[in-house]
Amino acid sequence: MPTQANGIEMTPAWRELGLRAEALRSVRMRDLFAADKGRARRFTLEAAGIYLDYSKNKLDAAAITTLLDLAAAADLKGAIARMAAGEKINATEGRAVLHMALRDFGQVGFSVDGAPVAPAVEAERRRMQAVCARMDAGELRGFSGERIEAIVNIGIGGSDLGPLMAVEALRPYWARDRRVYFVSNVDGQHLSATLEGLDPRRTIFLVASKTFTTEETMTNARSARDWLIAAGAGEADMARHFFALSTNIAAATAFGV
């Protein structure tokens, strides 16, 4: 496995991949298909109900082999195994990275420091389900007692793109009396344009930030807070309109969640 002193870019596979990329730069896609009659079939994958067709990318068999060599040089399989074993591969924060445990409906059973994580994941699922049930029943209401009809997710990066993709994919199942919006850009125009036409009395915000310190996210969250206050909401009303997706409980509580 390459070390920091001898990075992945110093491996033979990396250099070979650069040569393959240069060789393919001027190749026309039609020529790749003409040279390999089985390309449309061989350059596809299907698993877990997902069909991937990568035949229309500038790749050939040699490039794919080199990519696999690069993955081996980087010890990708070993890294995946360490992640699945609950090792603390996030060196910056000294913590495990078990995103897949959130989708462990098959009860594979992931652990960190010898402790199973499934109970904590299931508890959070139940909490989210309870919030959704309260909203569907009309029990979650704004500061003036109105039912909630707009949900605005404030986040950036993985706190925006993943949820946005899921929400758009599930658009046919949206509740008819509810709409979801996403704000990620710290440019005030993004939030302003999103809030235009929304009723502060009927709007809640999801502030998605693991640390609750992400500058872009918190700037937009404070602007959303000001928007509610300008509409007549009080400080004590913030808990009606804000939900935090975070591990920093103290900061979220201080904000008013």
Account of the protein in words:
- The protein has about 260 residues and is α/β, with parallel strands linked by helices.
- The chain is built from 11 helices and 8 strands.
- Helix 1 (about 10-25) runs antiparallel to helix 4 (about 60-75).
- Mean pLDDT is about 95; it is low at about 1-5.
Which structural class fits the helix and strand makeup?
alpha/beta
C-alpha termini separation: 45 Å
Helix content: 40-55%
Instruction: Tell me the strand percentage band.
Output: 5-15%
Shape assignment: elongated
Largest sheet: 4 strands, parallel
Task: Write down the overall mean pLDDT.
Answer: 93
Topology pattern, helix = H, strand = E: HHHEEHHEEHEHEHEHHEH
Q: Helix tally?
A: 11
In spatial order, strands of the major sheet run 6-5-7-8
Number of β-strand runs: 8
Uncertain regions: pLDDT < 50 for 5+ in a row?
Answer: 1-6
Radius of gyration: 24 Å
Question: Which secondary structure elements does this structure contain, and how are they paired or packed?
Answer:
Layout: H1 12-24, H2 29-35, H3 39-42, E1 44-47, E2 50-53, H4 61-73, H5 76-84, E3 111-112, E4 115-116, H6 118-136, E5 150-154, H7 161-169, E6 179-183, H8 188-195, E7 203-208, H9 215-230, H10 238-241, E8 242-245, H11 249-255
Parallel strand pairs: 5-6, 5-7, 7-8
Antiparallel strand pairs: 1-2, 3-4
Helix pairs in contact: 1-4
List keywords for this structure.
single chain, 257 residues, alpha/beta, disordered N terminus
